[in-house]
Amino acid sequence: MALGFQPRESIRPDGSKKHAAVDLARRLPGLILSARHAAASVAAGLHGRRRAGMGENFWQFRPFISGEAAQNVDWRRSGRDDRLYVREREWEAAQVLWVWTDLSPSMNFRSHLAEDTKADRALVLALALADACVRGGERAGWLGLTPLFSSADVIERLALALVTQARRTDDAFPDLPPPAKVRPREKVALIGDFLVDSQEFDATLARLSAQGVSGCALMVFDPVEETFPFAGQTEFFDESGAKLRAGRAEDFAAVYGQKLQNHRAALADSARARGFAFALHATDRPATEALLRLRNGLEAR
Amino acid sequence: MSWVFASPWILLALAGLPALYVLLRVTPPPPRQVAFPPLRLILDERRDDATPARTPWWLLLLRMALAALIVLAMAGPSLVPSGASAGRGPLLLLIDNFWTAAPDWAARQAAATKLLDDAARENRPAAVLGLAEKPFVTLEDPGAALARLRALVPRPWLPARAQTLFAIEAFLREHGGEAAWLSDGQQDADGRAFAGKLSALTPGAAILTGDRPPRAITGARNISDALEIDVLRAPNGAPEGLVRAFDAHGAALGDAPFSFGTEDRAVARLTLPLQLRNDVARLALVGEASAGGVFLLDSGARRRRVGLIGGAKADQPLLSPLYYLRKALSPYADLREEKPGETDPIGRIIGEGADVLVLADMTLAPDAREKLKKFLDAGGTVVRFAGPRLASAPDDLLPVKLRRGGRTLGGALSWDKPKTLAPFDETSPFAGLAPPADANVNRQILAEPEPGLPQKTWARLADGTPLVTAEPRGAGTLVLFHIAAESSWSNLPLSGLFVDMLKKILARAGAVGPAAEAQAEGLLPVLKNLDGFGVLGPPSAEARALPKGDVTPDAEHPPGYYGSQEAPRALNTFADGAFKPLDISGLNLRPQSFAAPRAVDLRGPLLLAAVLLALADAFASFWIGGAWRRQAAPAALALLFILAPPPVQAQQGGIPSRVGPSNSDKWFAPALNTSLAYVVTGDAHADRISAQGLKSLSDTLSQRTSFNPGPPRAVDPARDELAFYPMIYWPVSADAPQPSAQAAQKIAAYMKQGGLMLFDTRDAGQQYGGESTPAQDWLKIFLQKLDPPPLAPAPKNHVIYRTFYLLDGLAGRSENGPTYIEALPPETEGEKAPARAGDGVSPLIIASTDLAAGWASDQWGEALYPGGSDAIRTHELALRGGVNIVMYTLTGNYKADQVHVPELLERLGQ
């Protein structure tokens, strides 16, 4: 994979438009595998409510208690015996996790210090998180894009939806989650580099918070975005085409470090104020680390 | 010092430098492009003043200098020392290619080549003329002139430069230009005259002389107990030297040192037994590769065995004819004399192998005459002297008929005065000798006038009467002196002429037997010629037959052997004379030495500087681009390491420290595992072959024998400990310097304590006749320091051919070649031992077949350096020989003792 900004269409999980199917076969398994692998390590800790309650799946038969509504009797089971039984269903935690990943061009970047682009890492994390939720008996969906899924092939479904969306929008994805319909007490996991104005970020979180959801925001960054290992005569450019010519790039290191710290502090403050957890993840670190952070952030609320 | 440009018009390109300056200033080096998503965070920090819009001034300077250097280099500059080059026009190179120039011929060629190179760089045509060649000069381009120069070889005769002057004059008149004369620095015949004419033709012509004035052997005398060799040097020549004597087959017979002291002539005395002295065919100055440094000896130089038989014995020695003959001949001949009271002195002396019989006045018995006639038929020379007896009773063993009585001149009863000698005829063997004015003859016997008498006459008196007559008889010659051998008839026996005449007769006397002087008369055909370097070779194409008499060597009569194969006559390069340095004072010539500074071509250094600047520019660009710290720095450091000279070995030349950990490691490994070793000769190619050869030999030993040697090791005898190695292989290279005395001591000690040195001269097939090859010479000098045991060619049943395989010889890359090993005790009579060995292991083996190259094989066992007609077989034989050598080294004479096992067993059984 080349360094720097990647081709625009590589944001999709499937790859180029022409060879969508082939690339999907090539690319998705990798993502899925790494997602499953990451999810397997946290599945046990995320969900522990194995008890009777409201739900759709059979849980257990229990003796009929007098005074109970007669309609609760499971006549098929009771017919085999002299006693009356009630069919109990498993209590389904009404927990819902919306995942969302920033797939804007600025995420589509990899430096020589990292192995993946930020987008790839974020996508893997989002899919893994969704998979982990479904395995934990909860439901997951892509914020603003898909309904909630609880089937085991949630990763494939989400990936398919993303590919479809990428084709529809010509690989243009927003920097921040668009307004979407969510219910109160649902959880949201936002993964992205959040290289946006902190006001916009705050506005988005405020909107989500107003809808009654809480969750976690994970800021994914490339190592060079933190260490700023540049020196000498350098011309910087970003995905929007903006350029900065530095006679001595090392002169900018301190300024940049300060700016980055301020930006992160602003984001963290905003997240805390809106009931969100805020975490950082560098792409040169293992993905499981980020997944744990996300889980912690989601469970704490 | 002055600057010269080969193509000065290229310097115009320097005018383009300002344009380059402008161009470089407006195009600064491009910055590094870096993608950086969070750019918007610092986008408002844009600082225009921090971006260099222009190239830094020092980089600009660097690049300008780079461009200027390249332009300068293209213009072909050279730094010419003042006075080296006169300048324009064709260059005429005059080269003394006589034998006097041969000793430093390579330096002359190099100097001439350099002059031609200079001419080529300046685009000047050139011409080359060897002054000993035909006077024919053409103007050529320097390349063709260089080819002509390479073809020049020194000629074995003395300079006669005058004949070339007209060609030089014609050339200079037609083309102009300047001349350079590579002179031998000697006056020779006409050096000053030639120099004068040359300075008149081209004032300021360069004259280049070397610093090795010639030396020559001017003569050799076979005196009673030694061969005296006259050596001549030019003034300021080497003060001492060595004359080496060779026989007809080229084997060295002995060396005779000489030292000039303050004189320019010296005499070297070669003390050898007479028989060996008579075998000497060639004398050569060691280290003087010129025809003048070689002296050829023919049969004339052989020391004759002369019988003196003198009839009556006089009471007073000064009246005895034999006294004068003995005095005259003893320095030049081996004398045999009649003993008192002997019955048949003639028969005895002929039987002792005399070549010349000198008979003083005596009457001959008939049986003695028969013996003398047989002696004459066999090629002997009989010299008879007159006297009262012969005058009274002439016999038939005389070249002319004699008148009875004889003739008295200037006596009391005679009107005539004593007669002096007439000058010798051209045809006479005495031609060239000058009769002294005071030699006169009082009495003589007269020849009967008859037809043919003038042809028989070798010397005559002033009035024409024959004094010495001679006649060929059979293969020999019968000579009669018409005077007595003592001073009563003539005072000739008292003069030096008498000695010279006898010497001429001795020189003319052939050997007794079929090898007699067959061509007494006429021209002598060419047999062999010396070339300018003093190497005897086939006749030169221009050589003509040699007339009799004294001939000065020239193009038509180059020095060498003439006449018949059996009794050749030697014509030597430098009969006599003296060297006189060439005097050019007062002439308009520029004297120079071969080693004088020449024009220095600056193209290479300039281009090198340009490359270095380009490298510096690349680094600077890296530095500006900011990549220095991350990738370029390690790369640049690596590059610096590659460019840097290898680290100097700390131990080199110093005293080896015996306690360092590296040293003990170095010594532990060979001590723990026996391995073969080879000596590092300094010749990388030979060392690689040694390593490869010993490696494959070690592998072969591991496969085929129970000996598992470690990897072969390279040793430096001066520094490394040798005690660990059973055998050390030393490929001898004649070019290598002789090892230091310290190394020789260590090797001698190694050989004494049981080690085996395996020298390999690698010259099998190059040994012709008895001449030793350069590698053998090198080894001979070296072995003198080693106290070697007596060596002999290894006999076929030597145990070294029996230790593992049964072999006939030690094959290497070539299959056959002599192998020398410590001489064995003589074989006991009647014993036919299948294997013989001395006590212990020979400390020294000298092979010649390039063993290591024969052993060397690649990883698949194929010969790396295939040799011989059947490479596979030769390789296998070489390896077998190597296995045998190592087994011999390790087991000694064990295999020879094994031979006796059956007998021992038999004895045990009894």
From TrEMBL, chain A:
This is DUF58 domain-containing protein. It comes from the Bacteria. The lineage of its organism: Bacteria, Pseudomonadati, Pseudomonadota, Alphaproteobacteria, Hyphomicrobiales. It comes from Rhodoblastus acidophilus (Rhodopseudomonas acidophila). Residues 61-264 form the DUF58 domain.
TrEMBL record, chain B:
It holds the Pfam family DUF4159. Residues 4-77 form the Aerotolerance regulator N-terminal domain. The chain crosses the membrane at residues 6-24, 56-75. Residues 676-890 form the DUF4159 domain. Keywords: Membrane, Transmembrane, Transmembrane helix. This is DUF4159 domain-containing protein. It comes from the Bacteria.
